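Researcher: We're teaching a course module on how sequence relates to structure. For the next exercise, students receive a sequence and then see the predicted structure as tokens, so they can try to spot secondary structure elements on their own. Here is the exercise chain.
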Amino acid sequence: GNIMASNPELCLTLEEWEEKFSQWVRTPEPVALLNATIFFDFRPLYGRFNLAHRMRLSLLRQTQGNPLFLRMLAENALAVAPPLGRIRDFVTGDDPEHPGTIDLKKYGVRLFTDAARLFALANQVEATNTVARLKRASALMKISPEEVAATVEGFNFIQMLRLRHQHFEQEHGRPGDNFVRPDELNEVERRILKESFRQARKLQARLKLDYQL
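Model: And here is the predicted structure for the students to work with:
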């Protein structure tokens, strides 16, 4: 929490941010890895954009030379698996407040964004947008265009379901959340969602192979 410009601990100079990033990369402890998943996706919105560019290049130099950090980041990305069941189509959560649902942010979107972030850091890709990261890194990794397209389609479909659900909730006076009931989807949507999770599983299989996890 409190990840905002009003937090004085986050109002740092370029050199101070570079040192902070360097500490996280050199010492990939759990808190450092969590910070990496938040702060390494930075992008400029106003002011001197060249500072953000310099910081991005500095970060990529640091991650390129630290395979241990990348391996730990991969391990962190594999902590959550796609909610695919062996008997049922989907494994729903056991949260009593949201029975029979899937958290599409935690068990869907995150799987793609975590993999895309790692691919970008490992392959010197400056992009921060998940789709751009997947496309640019995949080209460098010699992944076929067909496979990349399937991955992007899976990510976009999960995002669409998530945003549609949030809009529906807000239209009915409820705060938007990420908990979608798969049994409320039509048959076509369920099939596409299942295939989208399979694409996430393929991404994770690549991480396991690349980092021997």
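Model: If you want an answer key for the exercise: Residues 145-171 form the longest helix (27 residues). The chain has a mean pLDDT of 95.
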